[in-house]
Specification:
single chain; mainly alpha; 65% helix; 181 residues; 2 domains; globular
């Protein structure tokens, strides 16, 4: 049971209903973590705006999902691991690639550099080394791409925190977290 109220059609204000309806019309459902964010329509609009704009960038959907999976596992957010496993599969990631992503890498060489960089950013609160910047750049990512990776890291950390703090019910096929070694 969520520790923060889950907003749905029955308990939503007019503004919250409008936002939830817009999400449902686009996705066919409203993920529970967005129902938690709906407690603050301002926070929900901010997240949706960032998510929409970040999705328009140069990183492909698979790379965005790879980053999300790596961070969800690193940050021990079961909701996010479950959600991004389902979303990643829809984006074309197979089981072994999802497993690699959750381990902080990728079977695709270029994507592996992005995922490793994302993990380093999150692990070190942005304090990455020059070598880590050069590794992602040498893999073929431009400075614009690097800024987009940073943006996706920030956005995923936000969703990981919401998922963990709220303990919202997982409304995707449940995936178990890997135990820290």
């Amino acid at each position: 049971m969520s520790r923060i109220t889950v907003i749905n059609q029955e308990n939503a204000s007019a503004e919250q209903k409008e936002l939830l309806d817009a999400i449902e019309s686009q996705l066919g459902m409203v993920p529970n973590f967005l129902k938690v964010l709906a407690n603050s329509p301002t926070a929900l609009r901010a997240f949706l705006g960032l998510h929409t704009i970040a999705g328009e960038g140069s990183l492909d959907a698979q790379t965005r999902e790879r980053i999300a999976l790596a961070l969800a596992q690193q940050n021990a957010c079961q909701y996010c691991v479950s959600a991004h496993t389902a979303i990643g599969r829809k984006a074309g990631l197979n089981g072994s690639e999802i497993e690699a992503n959750r381990n902080g890498t990728s079977q695709d060489g270029k994507a592996a550099a992005a995922v490793k960089f994302a993990v380093a950013l999150a692990k070190h609160s942005g304090e990455v080394t020059t070598a880590e910047i050069l590794a992602v750049r040498n893999a073929g990512y431009s400075d614009a791409d690097i800024v987009e990776i940073i943006t996706h890291v920030g956005m995923n950390i936000l969703t990981n925190i919401v998922g963990k703090a709220s303990q919202v019910e997982i409304d995707f096929p449940k995936v178990e977290l890997k135990l820290a070694s």
